[in-house]
Amino acid sequence: MTIRVYNTLTKTKEDFEPVEPGKVGIYLCGPTVYKPSHIGHMVGPVIFDTIKRYLEYNGFDVTLVVNITDVDDKLIAESQLRGITMEAVAEEMTADYLKNLGLLGVNQIDEMPKATDNIDEIISFVSELIEKGHAYDSDGDVFFDVTSDPDYGELSNRSVHDQQGEGGDAANRKRHPSDFALWKSARDGEPSWESPWGNGRPGWHIECSAMSRRILGRSFDIHGGGLDLVFPHHENERAQSNCCHDIPMVKYWMHNGLMRAESSAGKVGGRSDRELDDNQATVDTKISRSKGAGGLAELIERQGGERIRFFLLRTHYRSTIVFSEEGIEEAGSALDTFARLFERVERISGESVYDQPLITSREIGELDDQPGELLKEVANLRSGFLSKMDDDFNTGGAISDIFDLARAINRFIDQQNLEDSSSRSNDDVLQVTRAATTIRELGQLLGLFVTRPQQASGADDALLDSIMQLVIKLRTRSRENKDYETADFIRDQLAEIGITIEDGKEGSNWRIE
RNA sequence: GGCGCCGUGGCCAAGUGGCUAAGGCAGCGGAUUGCAAAUCCGCCAUCACCGGUUCGAAUCCGGUCGGCGCCUCCA
After folding, report:
1. Structural domains for chain A
2. What's this model's pTM, rounded to 2 decimal places?
């Protein structure tokens, strides 16, 4: 069992071996908190949350860091526009971001450092770069000298010659057009901090170099982010850190694919809308406002976090995901299979699958020999799931195995006629329970099936449940009297208010759709 | 112009040199059901196109067509 990881730097999958055995440091570039987050911002957190879960399951001690960029041009612009402080904007948008992460089950983040809490660290980092001859002070701005880094451009595969470089008035203070700002001198009315080069604020890239060093050390394992960050952000971070420390900052650079709106409008929340002709712009703007870029909170409320998470994880993390709400609904239909299965198992065993203890380590599971016909199949599928995850966290491929698992369990229940209590054996019930628990064991690695769904059955609301028991009793009586007209009427009427009745071998079940 | 990605069944989506090309959604047929629903069983693709390498390619190479990203703030 070797985990393999695709490294953007080498463009190949490599065997995963942490810098320090048993320990893994992951730094994921988080958001600039100037606007509410959209679904595209969730792709990285969901996949890296999943990666951490998987690595921990495999016995690694993982630290996951996601930074918050709370000082930059866009934040300043937003605060001026709204007439409130930059801190207030950042605070509001950070809260929005955290709320959305929570709803999607992203709860593996260990630290979320903010740029403004690390100004001292940033200033000393810049000073070190100047001392080592990799940066220069130019009239209150400090720039990184890209020509001092022989490896510059290696990550994004480009040479200094074909760089455009930032334009604007900063350009004539640079020695080379590709040099980028480590420290920007303050303009009137902008937030600023004292520094050896005068009042100013950090450049975009330096916070990540400084904060990752503080928390994860000079050399850590995984640095992640969206594909759009490879250049210039990660290229520049890498240049800063490598030049400052003379050791590789990061062992594995991992980048997730970006999300795109339907009808190839460009990425969600991106700027491509305005470049389209009128006709298309109308279509695409509507899509992005109603379905994603606009209200993530509303989207989550409508669909549920688990569905969205599953939707994201169905596609390989390096691929582009085309956003559509239909896609999320389809993912939801697929996910319902598991909710129904867990209820079915609960009816048979009398215990909630959600109350069963979960295996949280791969080793324990592998040592456990599984007796019984069903559990043999389960063991096979389980190892299929794990080997797909081993191969660069192929969540999309691995998911097929949990569907096969569900089918195997349902088939076993059918064949052994376990819904009929008279034909149940303790061994069969045990096998089914353990098999279903294996789905949860694997699901938890993806952040799925972690908590019991609220509306899986009526048990949440005692009054509703007793009323439904009564309704079912009345309907059962009708059926026994062969009064199918009444029985069907009750079922149809319930369906209209969103309650599904299913007649089973030992009575009827109901479910809120 | 430079760098890079993608094109697998109606739709979504794994697989990237060799068992019968995963899985999901939808559909169809069957079992089951009073009828349904759920569940199970079965059916539904030769992998954009052309050429090449190879005993053998969806998987490698070249070309064509089509879609997309980065090079500027962006997860």
Report:
1. 4-256 (3.40.50.620), 261-305 (no CATH), 335-445 (no CATH), 458-512 (no CATH)
2. 0.92
